[in-house]
Amino acid sequence: MLGEKMEEAKEAGLLAILNIATRNERNKIILLQFGVLSSIVELLQSQSTRLRELATAGILTLSSPDSNKPLILASGAPSLLVEVIISGNIQGQVDAVTAMYNLSTCQQGFDARICLKSAFHLLALLKDCKKLSKFAEKATTLLDLLSTSQEGRDAITESEGSILTLVETVEDGSPLAAEYATSILLNICKSCRDKYRELILNEGPIPSLLLLTVHGTDRAQGLAHTLLQLLRDNSKQNRVSTEELQCMVYKIVSHVDGPEKALETAGNILKDVTGRDPVVGIVEMN
């Protein structure tokens, strides 16, 4: 009975903190100055699923001001958030990923390797979420940071279905999610082209990457171009003819831009990828 009352009191305290902090940046900073962080971090280790979920929401709420981020990073909260990503309920996982994303923007003290244990779970969440969502952008941001180290790339590629999930994000994601997913694929391919080139190609990324070279963010365009170069088969035996490439690109682009605008867009893509001006060939083909 006493235990239940204690848990109810802790829940009430966490709800009060959330109410005070929600949509008020000044209150978020003041709450940390009053020392509430240590109590919330302690509740992140609670045996109660409800308390862990509320504590995760508390860290998420308090992690938005830049001045709070170094304090949260130093508190031990990130490793506990990773445990929530691994074993929490769906709301807890989403809040934990978002909190980690907020913390990842801090230049002081964030180490992406802390997410190594959660790579499989991040990919599973990315697979199941709407690729156009803000959550997909946050998950791919963390995975992109992970992919800059060999340990991170290993954790990603050892997760079943990871390449397909990333290719689907390039295809269906928002401009930012597509950018980060392309960056991850590029980091993986650059780390060992002989090992990963075919694995990536088998998931059919070429149409989406071609479109990204024109319609993506500035960074995504460069990343997509570089990845396409790595994925090209330079052997004479398997080289696609110029005419076949023109036909393929035109068909892809025409579904997005329409037949008239597709001529110009497809020409720009092919010129960028091959270094040659193929517009005449496309017009004749059409």
Concise description?
This protein is mainly alpha-helical. The protein contains 18 helices and no strands. This is U-box domain-containing protein.
Question: Keywords, please?
Answer:
Leucine-rich Repeat Variant, 286 residues, 0% strand, mainly alpha, elongated
Describe the structure.
This protein is mostly helical and 286 residues long. It folds into 3 domains: 7-106, Leucine-rich Repeat Variant (Alpha Horseshoe), CATH 1.25.10; 111-232, Alpha Horseshoe (Leucine-rich Repeat Variant), CATH 1.25.10; 237-286. The protein has 18 helices and no strands. It has helices at 2-21, 25-33, 36-43, 49-62, 69-74, 77-87, 90-104, 119-128, 134-146, 150-157, 162-172, 175-191, 193-201, 206-215, 218-231, 242-257, 259-274, 279-285. Helix 8 packs across helix 11, helix 14 runs antiparallel to helix 15 (218-231) and helix 16 packs across helix 17. The longest helix has 20 residues, at 2-21. 42% of the residues are buried. Mean pLDDT is 87; it is low at 279-286.
Describe the secondary-structure layout:
Layout: H1 2-21, H2 25-33, H3 36-43, H4 49-62, H5 69-74, H6 77-87, H7 90-104, H8 119-128, H9 134-146, H10 150-157, H11 162-172, H12 175-191, H13 193-201, H14 206-215, H15 218-231, H16 242-257, H17 259-274, H18 279-285
Helix pairs in contact: 1-4, 3-4, 4-7, 6-7, 7-9, 8-9, 8-11, 9-12, 11-12, 12-13, 12-15, 14-15, 14-17, 16-17
InterPro entries: ARM-like, ARM-type_fold, ARM_PUB, Armadillo
Protein name: U-box domain-containing protein
Organism: Zostera marina (Eelgrass)
